Amino acid sequence: MPPLSMNCSSSAAEVRLAAPFSHIYVEEDILAHRQTQEILSHFRDACIIPIHHYKDIFNRGRQNAALQRRSPSLILARNTGSLIYPGAPVCQDFGEKHFYYTSLCMNCPFDCDYCFLKGMYPTGNLVLFVNTDDYLKAMDDLCSRHPSYLCLSYDTDLCALESWTGYIHFFHDALITRENLTVEVRTKAACTDLMTDLSPISRLIFAFTLSPDYVARTWEHRTPGLSARLKAVKTGLDAGHPVRLCFDPMLFFPGWKQHYRDMIETLLSTLGEEGLSRVRDISVGTFRISGTYLKTFRSQYPDNPLVQYPFRLKDGYACYPDELAEEMESYLIRLLSPCVDENRIFRWEAEP
Ligand code: SF4
Hints:
binds iron/sulfur cluster; five-stranded mixed sheet; eight-stranded mixed sheet; alpha/beta; single chain; 21% strand
């Protein structure tokens, strides 16, 4: 285990330039936990700071979340609260009756300018929960009641953390014997190695969010570009993994039509019609966010044009006006429809 106070005396100027996770807060109760030790072994130069409870750091007042996102700290903790939640209304449920999500990590290593996490959490730091066995028990309880569908990486990107967490491998191996459980892992990562390392399981779906290169470069900070994501998609398909493509959220901006057209052309030239026919399904949806999160988001990021649009507010959710959302989603579906059956394309719809 690294010494607890190593490198903790950086000056303010150095801290601003520090690499992500140069400081790691660890709940005292889990300092000796196997998973904690495994994770810390990947950060031998980090300053390790014992804490009582993750909320003492994560929820404290007067944080500068925007600055923290440029160089986040990591907090390792045990989740003693709810481990599995019913899917939120803004989530696409793919027609699944028993639809849930879990949160192994709060916040994300990527930094998308439209991300709802910016309206949800008061900090840019990440909390990673190390009690993965408790999560497995919660999954077993859920599946003893009915077959279930679980989003494992909904409000973070676990694939981007895989090199030092190993969580995708852990849940992949656990899933083999849990036949009542289907898991979706959503990602923007260029996780080509992960696609070749893991044996495919029909109940483990890798859902790749694809965006035009312009969107990735301008608003999805630290994410790989379209071609790197498509390389992982192709590798996943060739390895036999169930692959989902998510064009969600689509963003409205000047020139959006041309950028989304270019993206579909790149997709077709990379996968070909045959590759696209092996994609399990496709999700299409325009940007939407809870009205409460939007209010916080706008106040904390007043210069962010993506959240200053005059959204339509309906049942507590902010969306583009119906006509615009319809135009955008229909346009993308028309681009895809020569190669993809429409019954494999899911659109997000507000609950009636
Ligand atoms: S990858 Fe997803 S969860 Fe991560 S910052 Fe972007 S939108 Fe948020």
